[in-house]
Amino acid sequence: MRLVHCRKLKMGDEKYVYPPAEAIALIKSAVARYQKIEGLAELRRGLMINLDHMVWQQIERGEWLLIKPEARSFDWKDFEPEARHRRMLAAMENPPPQITPAKLIFRLFDSETAEFIFSRKYFGKFDGESGERRVDAQGFGTFPVISKKASLSVRLGGRY
Fold first, then answer.
1. Model confidence over 99-148: pLDDT tens digits?
2. Is 117 in contact with 108 (CB distance < 8 Å)?
3. Per-residue DSSP letters for 61-78?
């Protein structure tokens, strides 16, 4: 709660003003409990005689208004769609790092001549997954890793 002079009322705060009778009752109970009310000291400084009934008269006449605490809270509902859109654009510009599945990379060579085998199809079984693949131009082949304790068997040409 805060007391504001009617001339210093901000735009939009008029819907958060207590009626004078309710404002007086709230201020009296707050003063009795020694609670601080923002603006009360400023109201008292402006009075020629600092008496409580003079304070109540100012509030009854509507020269000083008691504003509800909700007036200070900012309503984000109008800005939320725009903020959500900006977060989405920022995520698109800087996407989170993607987890790449682990691969087993190996190089094929001929066991008799010890030469690397390039650009040939092979059929392999690794961890229960089998399939026909191709060795690249440098002799490297790949299989997705499913577990650490697995065996790889590769055969060039036909299937097993």
1. 888 887 888 888 888 888 888 888 877 777 777 888 888 888 887 776 66
2. yes
3. HTSEEEEPGGGGS---TT
